[in-house]
Amino acid sequence: MQNWTLVIHGGAGAMARGTMTPERDAAQRAGLAAALEAGKAVLASGGAALDAVEAAVKVLEDNPGFNAGRGAVFTYEGVNELDAAIMDGRNRAAGAVTGLTRTRNPISAARAVMEKSPHVMLQAPGADRFARERGLDQVDPSYFRTEERWQQLQTMKENTKTGAVFDADMKYG
Amino acid sequence: TVGAAAKDMHGNLAAATSTGGLTGKRWGRVGDSPVIGAGTYADNRGCAVSATGSGEFYIRIGVAHEICARMRFGKEDAQTATDAVQDEVKALGGAGGVIAVAPDGTSAFSFNTPGMYRGRATSGGDFAVHIY
Fold it and tell me: What pLDDT is stored for residue A12 in this prediction?
């Protein structure tokens, strides 16, 4: 008997439902539905939960409408630094990466750390090198950039100058 | 941040989270998403969780592991456990949301932030996406 469940999230974007254009709302819903379909296809065919969550997250990483992979936000220095983690409930095996700038699908890098290394977390250039050595798709850092996210950084920097900072004490690390 | 939590036909759980972090982050700041037990956790004995929101609060509380421990030891269902830990995040001044799947296949969304994008699909025929 089939008995599987998949839940996904696309983050807590600044845009609540009421502030989005109908086109943006439709695009986000389509993106979420595509991710659900990808995970559902794995589970409905008897596949593993681990494969399903990776498949769903990869779809959202490739979708520039979400803050992961392509379309991720920018650091203060104007770089896309990507983080990801994955965990297998069967044996509590886990893998995480932080500060990636060249690996197209960070969630697959996290999985490679879990399955192809004795570690749990790798970070920054070393994590990209590890992913590259494991044959994961590499891209130019500009692949992750979208104009919308770039402008959000510029707006935030402008706000810090004028004092209209949306987070007065800049608790970003 | 994006994430997924699943239970498969074999009864196994898994969770995954991926993010670009916060706009304008500095000094190599890392939030909760890649911190096992904070933004991501899965344990067949407890649940599978992925979180999104003010990472610093989620790390300090250990949100994902806290939810699993409440379900494993406190025998709470997914909605009760996620709501309780989200309330703690909120009480400390944090904002965000979590998704969770329990070993019995039930699932939960809990969040206190606008724009929460989420979706659910089940073998029972559920298939829906929502935007808060």
Answer: 65
Confidence of residue A16 (pLDDT cuts 50, 70, 90): low
Establish whether B1 is a catalytic residue: yes
- Residue to mutate among A83, A92, A121, with most B CBs inside 10 A, is A83
* Residue B102, helix vs strand vs coil: coil
Q: Which residue of A has its CA nearest to B41?
A: A87
Q: How far are the Cα atoms of A4, A100, B120, B128 from residue B125, in angstroms, in the given order?
A: 10, 37, 10, 10
Closest chain B residue to A157, measured at CA = B24
Backbone angles phi, psi at B73, to 5 degrees: -95, -35
- Are the CB atoms for A98 and B34 separated by under 8 Å? yes
**Which of B96, B7, B26 lies closest to A156, judged by CA?**
B26
A19-44 confidence digits (pLDDT tens): 678 888 899 999 999 999 999 999 99
Q: Where are the alpha helices (DSSP H) in chain A?
A: 22-44, 49-62, 106-116, 124-133, 147-162
Please list, in sequence order, all residues whose beta carbon lies within 8 angstroms of the beta carbon of residue A123, skipping any fewer than 6 positions away.
Answer: A97, A98, A99, B30
Q: Is A68 on the interface with B (CB under 8 A)?
A: yes
Q: Are strands A121-123 and A93-100 parallel, antiparallel or unpaired?
A: parallel
Mean pLDDT of B97-119: 92
Tell me if A137 sits within 8 A of A105, measured CB to CB. yes
**What are the start-end ranges of the H helices in B21-108?**
55-61, 63-73, 78-91
pLDDT in tens, B19-62: 999 999 999 999 999 999 999 999 999 999 999 999 999 999 99
Contact yes or no for A36 and B127 at CB 8 A: yes
Taking residue A120's Cβ as centre, other Cβ atoms within 10 Å add up to 16
Q: What is the ipTM of this complex?
A: 0.97
Residue A169 has pLDDT above 50, yes or no: no
